[in-house]
């Protein structure tokens, strides 16, 4: 096990649907921090309901805090007002008195998000070589990627997306 060098950490994502690459990142990060929080960003009308995604992640990773973050915000990394709204939402949902001290992701927005939190940014497997999958690939062709899903997620995908 790696040294737990940070008191608190955050992972933010849609996890739509959660796959084994997400689980790899969550477990990898959890080994390096005292307390890990996973924000599951959700909005109405998504392919996989947000409460279901958050529930799956909480079940798969009982050693971390999973928080469903419902919103109606767009994503535009050039819009300062929108960034302010995202950060207010995230700070409101953050369950600890301090932190996050580090933000983990495999996506390019990580540097700016971490900077706005005053946290360190840590990129995990950006090229997705450890678990070569993305949620987009699953949504586009679910039958081709069932082996990259945890059993409970796989059963839902088979019943609802195929």
Question: Brief description of this entry?
Answer:
The protein is α/β, with parallel strands linked by helices and 162 residues long. The protein has helices at 20-30, 50-60, 80-93, 110-117, 135-140, 151-160; strands at residues 6-13, 33-42, 65-70, 102-105, 120-123.
Tell me the Rg in angstroms.
15 Å
Number of helices: 6
**Broad CATH class:** Alpha Beta
Number of domains: 1
Query: How many E-type strands?
Result: 5
Question: Can you describe what's shown?
Answer:
The protein is of the alpha/beta class and 162 residues long. The chain has a single domain (6-134), classed as 3-Layer(aba) Sandwich (Rossmann fold). Helices cover 37% and strands 20% of the residues. Strands 3-2-1-4-5 form a five-stranded parallel β-sheet, sandwiched between helices. Helix 4 (110-117) links the parallel strand 4 and strand 5. The longest helix is centred in the middle third of the chain and has 14 residues, at 80-93. The mean pLDDT is 94.
């Amino acid at each position: 096990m790696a040294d737990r060098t940070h008191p608190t950490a955050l992972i933010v994502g849609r996890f739509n649907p959660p796959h084994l690459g997400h689980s790899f990142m969550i477990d990898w990060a959890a080994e390096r921090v005292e307390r890990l929080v996973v924000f599951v960003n959700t909005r109405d009308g998504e392919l996989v309901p947000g409460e279901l995604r958050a529930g799956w992640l909480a079940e798969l990773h009982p050693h971390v805090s999973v928080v469903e973050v419902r919103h109606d915000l767009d994503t535009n990394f050039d819009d300062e007002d929108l960034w302010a709204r995202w950060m207010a939402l995230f700070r409101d949902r953050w369950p600890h008195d301090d932190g996050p001290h580090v933000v983990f992701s495999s996506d390019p927005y990580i540097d700016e998000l971490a900077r706005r939190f005053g946290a360190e940014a840590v990129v995990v497997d950006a090229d997705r070589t450890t678990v070569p999958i993305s949620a987009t690939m699953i949504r586009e062709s679910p039958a081709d990627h069932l082996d990259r899903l945890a059993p409970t997620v796989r059963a839902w995908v088979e019943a609802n997306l195929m």
